[in-house]
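> Could you send the Tyrosine aminotransferase prediction when you get a chance?

Sure thing. Input:
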Amino acid sequence: MGSQTNSLGENYTKELEITTTKMTVKRILGLVMDNIDGDDERKREVISLGIGDPTAHSCFHTTDAAKEAVVETLLLDKFNGYSSTGGLPITRKAIASYLSRDLCDDLSPEDVYITVGCTQAIEISISILAKQNSNILLPRPGYPTYALCANYRNVEVRYYDLVPEKNWEVNLEAIEGLADQNTIAIVIINPGNPCGNVYSYDHLEKIAETAKRVKTLVIADEVYGHLAFGETPFISMGLFSSITPVLTLGSLSKRWLIPGWRLGWFVINDPNCTFKSPKVIERINKYLDICASATTFIQAAVPKIIKNTKEDFFRNTLKMLKKNSDLCYEKILEIPCINCPFKSQGSMVVMVKIITTLLQDISDDMDFCFKLAREESVILLPGTAMGLKNWVRITFAVEPSCLEEGLKRLKSFCLRHSKPKK
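Output:
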């Protein structure tokens, strides 16, 4: 792949840039990984700061309470069969109770649908909303799976920008200009992926009011819910569901550090029942009837996972993430040719701008990441994959020593490719 970028040049880069809009994050990271030279005599350890899976590192592991709950339900020999549509009743009840802690109005178990991770929740939300000539408003930068699902359902994607100078707040004026009578939803991701932002109460309320004015609902991706370690606390978008309906998507994956368990949810926050109707519920249930269900014994373990997890576990996770976020920001400030407008306040990632005018023989973010992988064995996610060219996403949910070494190599790379000072 690296040789192709050199031999085919700009045309190849543009072609690949278009292709990345139709790829998952894993696939794009795979392309970057292909640039690592296995025959390189140096053979340094590959450092991946590209994918949001902290479980590869010993400092990030789930709580014993979660493991014990799964073992217990498995040994009961009661949960080896198929799950009921929408998930096991005990699981739906537990998630409803868990999410209601952050809301004014309690959710009922019937508002909750258990999914195979948050990815399936994304697919379900777009599929049940899709209709002829419809469009959906997505953040830029944002998580690419939304666009992939929308394209598959023939839903037009319209991007609104997040404003880096305002800590990646939503450009609300842009939303009002983009929305029309065919807009099925506005998607927000909070805490943010790929930006690491955490929205304030006031900003979330303004988003809800904007959605009401343009007569649409909000899909709130809260897969990183409660992973906020800055000055702004995590606020659930469901708090504003009396203003406009909110479909909340989430999972145990990030907060409990168990992405491979694939336990997510799709939740209807609609106390005024302006969206939730018998026809909508029937459509959801029919769709779920033909979908794969989350593993039954994992579902059955959820009530005990939630009940038995101590607050110390969450506090320790946030402490590690904050420490790494601080380290990442401090090291980035020392690196020429890149700029981080705001330190990450949540999730596990941060966006960094590449100042291409200060670099020689680097054409864009794709070229940057390919050459960084080949020369330094460091993997970053190109911003093009998230809709923002000439930026990169750095994941800092890794061992501190690994993060420090990766950023050290990044600095060496930038110094090597910097234009000479005149």
